Amino acid sequence: MRPTNIDDIVGQQHLVGPGKIIRRMVQAKMLSSMILYGPPGTGKTSIASAIAGSTHYAFRMLNAATDSKKDLQIVAEEAKMSGSVILLLDEIHRLDKTKQDFLLPHLESGRIILIGATTENPYISINPAIRSRTQIFEVKPLDEAAIKIGIKRALQDEKNGLGKLPVNLKPRAETFLAQATNGDLRSALNGLELAVKSTATKADKITITLPIIEECIQRKALRNDKNGDAHYDVISAFQKSIRGSDANAALHYMGRLIEGGDLTSIIRRLLVIAYEDVGLGNPQACARTVAAVTAAEKIGLPEARIPLADVVIDLALSPKSNSGITAIDAALADIRAGKSGEIPAYLRDAHYKGAAKLNRGVGYKFPHDYPSDWVKQRYLPKQLSQATYYQPKTNGKYEKALASQYQRLLKAQRES
């Protein structure tokens, strides 16, 4: 099911959609070497294959870890004969110095157009000499809609897919397959193929139900015997349990999401919870949440449950504060109601010739020139000079200190 044309790529529209960078490169026939990095099964090889198919260049695939310098030499000789070759080099972060030194002149000459693929952060794991000669593009996990497109194509394609078989994929099975594979189209197609080829034909149909998909991808779907909204109900209960400081309930609901293989929803929800419900009550817990979900993304399930469990307990037992979201929503409410006003002239940009003639920046007091690096000065538009959006809470030590500083500065600013 590997695409042979850029129009056939599933997902990654930020790179291959209309007017986006890789599509523009293909259309202009101005290809440059690049590194694609992101999780497995998200389209790195597919993009390379589609670029080659769309430009009619020869396309070769090698692995930086297992293929030798001699294999690279064969590709280089072919490039001399044909003009240019697109080389997909998988696991490029494992390219040793000997192979790298061989490749560099061929990249500079343009004879080899390198497309490196890696699941590692290229800014950390790839040698600067290679990195400086390539464009770096992040490939992101596919969303549910994109996975479903890939599934439908596989069911309809008679040559490369399952189109010749009388498959009846039930809607709930399709949705679960798209959700539970965590943005990995390869895993979804592997699960689909196993399900179809291991299921007997009955009444001239190969009927693929939810239990069959669960067994083939080794994930369990969330159950709901009434309205089919179990997935969102569990996520809602998960956040509300953390907000309510019940660590045991939060672990239970996260366990349901883990059992359903829904790592993406867990990560997204934890980041929201950290800043919406804990926020300034315990900013260190917010930072620890970012670190934990980053680790979880790197190691994947089932081991991802370990850092996630730690941070769920941390968030549930942290002091809570929603003062941040309340403050920005209050500011947005004024803006949307038309309460904006003019920015004071002394705060406007003065970094251009003639700004002073327009009174831009004139009279601005530079706080660092004053004791304690503060000076009384109006920053809000005049019409909103008395507006107060931030209403501090004092559940945690950090925000309690912020509240004291905030009230002191507010009082000093408003004293006549």
TrEMBL record:
It comes from the Bacteria. InterPro entries: AAA+_ATPase, AAA_assoc_2, AAA_ATPase_RarA/MGS1/WRNIP1, ATPase_AAA_core, DNA_pol3_clamp-load_cplx_C, MgsA_C, P-loop_NTPase. GO terms for molecular function: ATP binding; ATP hydrolysis activity; DNA binding; enzyme activator activity; single-stranded DNA helicase activity. Keywords: ATP-binding, Nucleotide-binding. Gene3D superfamilies: 1.10.8.60, 1.20.272.10, DNA polymerase III clamp loader subunits, C-terminal domain (1.10.3710.10), P-loop containing nucleotide triphosphate hydrolases (3.40.50.300). Residues 30-142 form the AAA+ ATPase domain. GO terms for biological process: DNA synthesis involved in DNA repair; DNA-templated DNA replication. Signal peptide: none annotated. The keyword ATP-binding applies. Belongs to the AAA ATPase family. RarA/MGS1/WRNIP1 subfamily. This is Replication-associated recombination protein A. It comes from Loigolactobacillus rennini DSM 20253.
